[in-house]
Amino acid sequence: MAAYVIIGLGMEQVIEVKNLVKRYGSLTAVDNISFSVHRNEIFGILGPNGAGKTTTLEIIEGLQHLTSGSAFVLGMDTRRGMAQVKERVGVQLQASAYFNHLTLHEILTLFGSFYRKAIPPDTLLRTVDLTDKAGTTLRKLSGGQKQRFTLAASLVNDPEVVILDEPTTGLDPQARRNLWEFIRHVHSEGKTIVLTTHYMEEAQALCDRVAIMDAGSIMALDTPVNLLCSLGSPYVVKLVTSRPMSSNEAERLKPSPVDSLIVDGCSYCLRVSDAPRTLAHVLEWANACDVTLVHLEVLSATLEDVFLEITGKELRD
C-alpha cells in the first residue's frame, strides 16, 4: 500500500524516509512508507503494537537492514554512515539493559566515554530531576524514574535528534505526564524528537505532526488539529433533559447540522460538524419544547476517532 505523506515546503529535513520496505520472509513489517521529519519538531508515529513503528525506528537507527527504499538521517544514508549518525543521534529503546552494579552517575560517565562530545552526568541527571539518585543503582528506581534515566542516557552525546520508542509504556498516568514535561523540556533545548506511541492522548499532547500507522503502512500524516478536522463530524454534543422527550420532539433535533443522533432515555448524543450552530439549535429546541437542559457539553473528537475512521477498528494495545 502506498503511503500518505505531507512534506512541509521550505523546512529543513533531518530525517527522510522514502519507499521504505522491510520484510521478514513472507511477512511485510513495513510496507512502502515515506515521510520526513523537520528540524526542531516533535514527530510522532501512532499505532498499535505490531504496526511497524519500532521496526521503522530501528532502520532509521541502523539496528535493522531495510529490504528496499532508503532512510537518511541528517543527510547521511543509514546503510553506510551509521557511525557518523550515532554521534549525532540519541536513542531510547523500548527495552534497555544497563550495568546493575553501577550507579546512575557511573553509567552516564561510561556512556559518555563512547563519544567525542558528551554532556556531564550531573547535568543530565539534573535535566530529568534525578540529581538525588546519582549514587543509586537502576534497580532501586521506580518505573517513572527508570524511564527518566533512559531519557537522560539518550542525551549523553548531546544529540541533534532524539528517538524515543514507546517512552511512557507501563507508566501510571501521573508518571506519564511527568515524562511528557521532561520531553517538552528537551525539545525546548533545540532537539528534534521522534517518538512512537500507542497512546492517542500522548500523541495529541506532544506532537507537532503525527503519522498514523497500521499493518506496516502510514494511513495518514498531518498535525493533530488537521487530522481531527479531517473527520466528517469532529464534535460530539451531549445533553440531558429534565424529562423524556416524545419521538416527535426528538425528531425536531434533526433539522440542525446533526450527522448522527443517539437517544438513551433523557440523554442525547449528537455527532456534528458545526458545534456552535448545533449549540444554538439545541437551545432553541429546548425552549420550543419547554424542557430544561440538565446537562450540556461539547467534546472534541480525539485521534482515536481519526484512527477508527481511517482503519475501521479501534486502536488496540
SSE map:
Blueprint lengths: L12 E12 L2 E12 L3 E5 L6 H9 L6 E6 L2 E2 L4 H7 E4 L11 H9 L8 H7 L15 H12 L6 E5 L7 H16 L3 E6 L2 H7 L2 E6 L2 E6 L1 H6 L5 E7 L5 H5 L6 E7 L2 E6 L2 H14 L4 E8 L2 H9 L6
Helix pairs in contact: 3-4, 5-6
Explain what the structure shows.
The protein is of the alpha/beta class and 317 residues long. It folds into 2 domains: 13-229, Rossmann fold; 235-300, Alpha-Beta Plaits (2-Layer Sandwich). The chain is 32% helix and 29% strand. The chain has helices at residues 53-61, 82-88, 104-112, 121-127, 143-154, 173-188, 200-206, 224-229, 247-251, 275-288, 303-311; strands spanning 13-24, 27-38, 42-46, 68-73, 76-77, 89-92, 161-165, 192-197, 209-214, 217-222, 235-241, 258-264, 267-272, 293-300. Helix 3 (104-112) crosses helix 4 (121-127) and helix 5 (143-154) packs parallel to helix 6 (173-188). The protein starts with 12 loop residues before the first strand and ends in a 6-residue tail after the last helix.
Give the amount of beta strand, in percent: 25-35%
CATH class of the largest domain: Alpha Beta
Distance, first to last CA: 23 Å
Q: How many domains is the backbone divided into?
A: 2
Give the overall pLDDT as a whole number: 90
Class inferred from helices and paired strands: alpha/beta
Instruction: Give the spatial strand order of the biggest sheet.
Output: 6-7-8-3-9-10
Name the CATH homologous superfamily of the largest domain: P-loop containing nucleotide triphosphate hydrolases
Q: Report low-confidence residues grouped into runs of 5 or more.
A: 1-9
Radius of gyration: 24 Å
Helix content: 25-40%
Enter the CATH topology name of the largest domain.
Rossmann fold
- What is the count of helical runs? 11
* SSE series: EEEHEEHEHHHEHEHEEHEHEEHEH
Main sheet specs: 6 strands, mixed
**CATH architectural arrangement of the largest domain:** 3-Layer(aba) Sandwich
Number of strands: 14
